[in-house]
């Protein structure tokens, strides 16, 4: 049995992997992020300019709008506190083997209506990593190696079947032109869990400011704690938004 520090050592009363994050919740989160960017363009905070803002500045504003405005109102139907407890920026969570106790995913939407299930509730959520996609941030190095791979190696969402990548897009980057060839790169296929070509999710919306949600599936090679065996593959949903 894997040695886990802390109170959970030797415990088998948990379910791994956790149940799917409902697709409708992923799609409505995509729309909520799009609404947040609309607000940042039309009603920016003093001194904030979306087209020039850095990654951390955008993520901070995004989390504030999602948590304090959209989750508590009715501007995006379905994005509410009936299924989402809160939206937390950079919470400290452990990786899959608890050897790194302070991993900080950019955003986590912690889930409700699952309290009766035998889950690790501190790890039950829609984990989102946010990455710029532009000339200054090569997609392979940043979005893939420092984004997707963190889900593949069990740093983020290791108990989950689903994860989310939010792209801050500039310079005309698209999933077809930029993400597809990056995932085909021979030196990245194994580190990224041999992903198939991104496919558009039926029912997701697109516009001039955002693409439809796409999904890729990635193999994971680490072992789950508590003798649950090999980790299952993870689906990564790609939510791309124009920040130019």
Explain this structure to me?
The protein is α/β, with parallel strands linked by helices and 244 residues long. The chain is built from five helices and seven strands, in the order H-H-E-E-E-H-E-H-H-E-E-E. 26% of the residues lie in helices and 18% in strands. Strands 1-2-3-4-7-6-5 form a seven-stranded mixed beta sheet. Helix 1 (23-42) packs across helix 2 (55-70). The longest helix has 20 residues, at 23-42. It is globular, with a radius of gyration of 18 Å. The model is unreliable at 1-5 (pLDDT under 50).
Describe this protein with a few key phrases.
7-stranded mixed sheet, alpha/beta, 244 residues, 26% helix, disordered N terminus
Question: What's this, in brief?
Answer:
With 244 residues, the chain is an alpha/beta fold.
Reading side by side through the largest sheet, how are the strands ordered? 1-2-3-4-7-6-5
Query: Rg, please?
Result: 18 Å
Total helix count? 5
- In sequence order, what are the helices and strands, one letter per element? HHEEEHEHHEEE
Strand content: 15-25%
Q: Give the structural class.
A: alpha/beta
Number of domains: 1
Shape: globular
Largest sheet: 7 strands, mixed
- Which stretches are low in confidence, meaning pLDDT under 50 for 5 or more residues running? 1-5
The tally of strands reads: 7
Cα(first) to Cα(last) distance is: 50 Å
